[in-house]
Design goal:
Beta-lactamase Inhibitory Protein, Chain:B, domain 1; 3 domains; 37% helix; OB fold (Dihydrolipoamide Acetyltransferase, E2P); four-stranded antiparallel β-sheet; alpha+beta; 11 helices
Length: 294
């Protein structure tokens, strides 16, 4: 007996087509049926994450998702998805025959397929390539007549900090282009923006780049400002640091902090003083919170 899934695939592929695409291209398709390759991630209930797809997709009833051990990288799967009122649902999932076959198929599509799909295909290939082969694949995908900017940006995304990225940028004279693509040179290594911000302790908040600790301090205090002010105005004993202690008392008992982070919220100055064993937070010169450092 033919399964419902196979019957659905047969009917829809006849009317909608069934070209094999990458998970990253799903957002570009208007069809009701999609045949793609992707690697699954976390599953919660009947919803599962697929690398390259922003939103989780549903798993139809009785569909089994092939899995490996928890410590192994998930399998690359050949998936059939159908679109319904709730979004996309997986109706069939099978392991891909081999990475080499997948690579050959999608590299051929870079030559024959529409150009607006190239970025998605390249991102899929670099992400899904076995780690030892990723550098070689990135170099092989370079074309002087292609979109070098996009190729370089993907190199930064998947080879951030690797020697091959820096060597290639220097060899091809792409220093200026790398900066345009928001790659950053730090201590002789070219880094993606994500890695550079992480190393430098930076985040983007309200469209502006700021220190991550200042942003964290802002978030942790702005929503409970009235409560913090009340706590900081308590009377206290000078020999014990507690809520309400003054800045002068803290310095007298513990000395100057090793690091100070500060932000201004409304008309109030909020500070975070870091010592070797504790973090003291003050507002307008008075303590409102003390945390021990383990």
């Amino acid at each position: 007996m033919i399964s419902t899934a196979l019957l659905t695939i047969a009917i829809l592929s006849t009317t909608c087509g069934s070209d094999l695409i990458t998970a990253d291209e799903l957002r570009l398709t208007d069809a009701s049926l999609a045949h793609l390759q992707g690697r699954v991630g976390d599953r919660i209930g009947n919803a599962i994450q697929i690398d390259g797809i922003s939103d989780p997709v549903r798993v139809a009833s009785r569909v089994k998702i092939p899995r490996r051990g928890r410590r192994e990288r998930p399998l690359l799967l050949d998936l059939w998805l159908v679109r319904n009122d709730q979004g996309w649902s997986i109706i069939q999932a099978l392991p891909v025959g081999s990475w080499e076959q997948s690579l050959a198929h999608h590299r051929a599509r870079l030559s024959d397929g529409p150009s607006d799909r190239h970025g998605s295909i390249l991102r899929f290939l670099l992400r899904e390539a076995p780690l030892p082969a990723r550098q070689e694949l990135w170099l092989a995908l370079h074309s002087p007549h292609g979109d070098v900017s996009r190729w370089l940006l993907l190199g930064g995304q998947f080879l951030s900090g690797e020697a091959i990225l820096g060597e290639t940028i220097e060899r091809l004279g792409l220093h200026a282009l790398a900066l345009e693509q928001q790659l950053f040179l730090l201590e002789g290594r070219w880094l993606s923006k994500t890695d550079y911000y992480r190393i430098q302790g930076l985040v983007v908040a309200d469209g502006k780049v700021t220190d991550s600790r200042r942003e964290s301090l802002t978030k942790s205090t702005s929503m409970k400002l009235d409560k913090i002010l009340a706590v900081s105005r308590k009377n206290t004993v000078a020999k014990i640091i507690r809520s309400g202690s003054t800045r002068k008392s803290v310095v007298a008992l513990h000395g100057s902090p090793g690091e100070v982070t500060w932000v201004r919220i409304q008309d109030h100055l909020v500070e975070e003083w870091t010592y070797h064993d504790q973090v003291v937070r003050l507002i307008d010169g008075r303590v409102f919170e003390i945390d021990s450092i383990q």
